[in-house]
Amino acid sequence: MIEAAQFVEAARERGFDWYAGVPCSHLTPFINYVLQDESLHYVSAANEGDAVALIAGVALGARNGRRGIAMMQNSGLGNAVSPLTSLNWTFRLPQLLIVTWRGQPGVADEPQHALMGPITPAMLDTMEIPWELFPTEADAIGPALDRATAHMDSTGRPFALVMQKGSVAPYALKKTGLSGVRERAARAPVERFEGERVTRREALDRVIGLTPKDSTVVLASTGFCGRELYAADDRENQLYLVGSMGCVTPMALGLALSRPDLRVVALDGDGAALMRMGVFATLGAYGPSNLAHLLLDNGAHESTGGQATVSRGVDFAAIASACGYALALDGDDIGVIDRFLDAKDVDGVRFARLSIRTGTPGDLPRPSIAPEDVRARLQAHIAR
User: Fold this and answer.
1) Once rounded to an integer, what is the mean pLDDT over residues 320-332?
2) Distances (CA, A) of 152 to 92, 159, 180
3) pLDDT value of position 185
4) pTM here?
5) Strands 307-308 and 300-301, bridge-based pairing
6) Ordered structural domains, the chain, with CATH
7) SS3 letters for 271-321?
């Protein structure tokens, strides 16, 4: 058994100062220790996939050797499969995973872990994530972290430490609340704009015109959103998600929090937003003023044939306001984008939903640049 401080401080020496996750009783000492150190950063995620995507955003903007850790119970691996396989693996965005081993064979546990426990190692192997048991002796911590960072640096992909029960000594929580959460006295009023709906391309052209390359990063959701942005203007300050549906916003949050010098714009779709609506609460709580969340809502899963979503019955702007966004806009008029990006003195994350028309050019290309090359190009750009 080790002390939480022994691992966290050894990890800090190797650049790990960003943490995100969902609690598990095995993780309690770590979370308690990190929460009480103001020089470390911990984000309480709505689900494990959001935590992985958020740390991917930290990795995207990493400088000066900064690294991140996503923590979860092994039951949460199911929630994290999508970003681990189609975001981290595809774009080569490394992170350390600490996965608790509930239901480990031979260890009595709750019935809900009876299947996940035995298959946890196989799940990691199937996702091509190297793993080893979490260190339980002080002199094993440094070598384990060195093996993890060597893999992360050489491959650009995650490494996992699987934590058994009783690996870490208890550490009491001496504070209440969460560091970094923004306190708000009142909800932001929803501002609504009436007008004529535009196409996705017209909306993206307006975004491009208002997001200068030298100060802004634009992350586009999977599907036609990213493909149309690429077709409109393939700029070096842009990244187009492939797969990992719903992960553009937690990824943007990780980038915005770790790089306050950048303005980060997340382009979302209604289907993707519905898939991970829990992240609205996370963005509202932690979202900084350099983060902007624009939802282009056409009421359809257009890239898969145009099947309708339930977005027409959802007031996304009211949800954003209720979750703590500092600005909440909604409407059909393209002027929403101007108000959204030009608003001054907004203390916190801003949100806008623009209702757009369906329809996509028939000759819409797919990006010819590989995802990891898009990532490398963006990282080189923001490093400058």
Assistant:
1) 96
2) 9, 7, 27
3) 66
4) 0.95
5) antiparallel
6) 4-163 (3.40.50.970), 190-383 (3.40.50.970)
7) HHHHHCCHHHHHHHHHCCCCEEEEEEECCEEHHHCCEECCHHHCCHHHHHH
